[in-house]
Amino acid sequence: MAACGAGETPIGMLLMGVRETDENGEQLKFNPVKAAEMGVVISGQAVPYVSRGIFHYSGSILASQTPVAQTKLYAGASGQLTTGVTLGALVGYVTASGQAVSGVTSPVVATCLGGKDDNNCVVIRLNIN
């Protein structure tokens, strides 16, 4: 699985992390109970995701920005939410086959319901169509 990029519409947001090892470097595939306790899945397993809902979001890109209530959020180049791409802005990228594409509008995937708190977290309304 790969993170979506700017100009692409994500299918949703993962509810659990995907990890191969624990904090001690031991492989989680030999200890699935530890993976469950950590709240992660092992690569290759099914992972729950959501496309709509209200969440407390703490992405590093959004933490460096200053969103306020009703700020539209877009999928950034690293798969994180960002205010940096505006609706109607042209996004250029290269497809997997090497073909350059431009003129793609980055879709709105969420809306801020307020500003950042003391921990740089934002309450968002996720709504991916």
- Beta-strand percentage range: 25-35%
Distance between the termini: 20 Å
Number of domains: 1
Mean pLDDT: 82
Helix content percent band: under 10%
Integer-rounded radius of gyration: 17 Å
Shape: globular
Main beta sheet: strand number and arrangement? Answer: 5 strands, antiparallel
Biggest sheet strand order reads 5-11-10-6-7
Number of helices: 2
Find the structural class using helix and strand composition. mainly beta
Number of beta-strand segments: 11
SSE arrangement, N to C = EEHEEEHEEEEEE
Unreliable parts: 85-91
Structural notes for this entry:
With 129 residues, the chain is mainly beta. It has one domain. The chain is built from two helices and eleven strands. Strand 8 and strand 9 form a beta hairpin. It starts with 12 loop residues before the first strand and ends with a strand. About 5% of the residues have low confidence.
Overview in brief:
The chain contains 2 helices and 11 strands; from the N terminus they run E-E-H-E-E-E-H-E-E-E-E-E-E.
Keywords, please?
129 residues; mainly beta; 5-stranded antiparallel β-sheet; two-stranded antiparallel sheet; 33% strand; globular
Task: Present the secondary structure layout.
Blueprint: E1 13-14, E2 17-18, H1 32-38, E3 40-41, E4 49-50, E5 52-57, H2 60-63, E6 72-75, E7 81-82, E8 90-94, E9 100-105, E10 108-112, E11 122-127
Parallel strand pairs: 2-3
Antiparallel strand pairs: 1-4, 5-11, 6-7, 6-10, 8-9, 10-11
